[in-house]
Amino acid sequence: MSSFETRCLDAFSTWLRTLGDDARALAAVLESDASEALHRAAARALVYVVKSVDLIPEGLEELGYLDDAFMVRVAVSALADGDLPAERDREPGATVQRLVADAALVREFLGATVEPLEASLAELDRRAVHERTVDGILADPALRAELGREAREFAASYAVPAFVRDEKTLVKLRAYFGAKTKPAA
User: pLDDT tens for residues 52-106?
Assistant: First the structure.
């Protein structure tokens, strides 16, 4: 196994363990006085995670939750430095900083497949999922609070799936993302 594959397996295992905490931290961001860009990134990530917009279904081994972990990182990776939380050493700012840093590994692992994932997340701004759009959620404090509550419920009920630390897991993950997206030419 290559050092890159080992690094991926180590990171992906960690991402599965932190997914519930990541959702909880993004709910706190959504309900904070953060920038509009940070609110949008948090809302996109949470809609993806809690509203079942999955490219890879949750019931499919650990891959379904890795799909969520990847998309959370892709959602926040679009933030500019000025949009990141000022308090980098406190939650949820530290979580956002970590997610942004982790996104580099997603990009390295998936390559060109990341671009359609970014586009898919951006579509959530206006595409209704369970009768809600990200734009609508951001415009309505009650909907924003509801999404935050749903994210905390997800975090409370999330059970970390078993993770097979095997090269085949990486092959399957790339294959699923590749089959569900069409990389930009």
Answer: 766 665 666 677 789 899 999 999 987 755 666 655 446 677 888 899 999 999 9
Tokens 């909880």 identify what position? 24
The pairs formed by 140-147 with CB atoms below 8 angstroms and a separation of 24 or more are: 144/30, 144/31, 144/39, 144/43, 145/31, 147/27, 147/30, 147/43, 147/46, 147/47, 147/50
Task: Count the Cβ atoms, other than its own, within 10 Å of residue 81.
Answer: 6
The residues spanned by each domain of the chain are: 3-180
Do 78 and 146 meet the contact criterion of CB atoms below 8 Å apart?
no
- Ramachandran region, residue 13 (left: φ > 0; alpha: ψ -120 to 50; beta: rest): alpha
157 token code pair: 């009920």
pLDDT for 59: 62
Q: Please calculate the CA angle 105-29-113 and round it to the nearest 5 degrees.
A: 30
- From residue 153, alpha-carbon distances to 36, 60, 83, 124 in Å are 24, 21, 27, 21
Q: What is the pLDDT of residues 26-40, one digit of tens each?
A: 999 999 888 899 999
Output the six-digit token pair for 120. 């898919």
Cα separation, 29 vs 24, whole angstroms: 9
Strand partners, 132: 129
d(CA 8, CA 108): 10
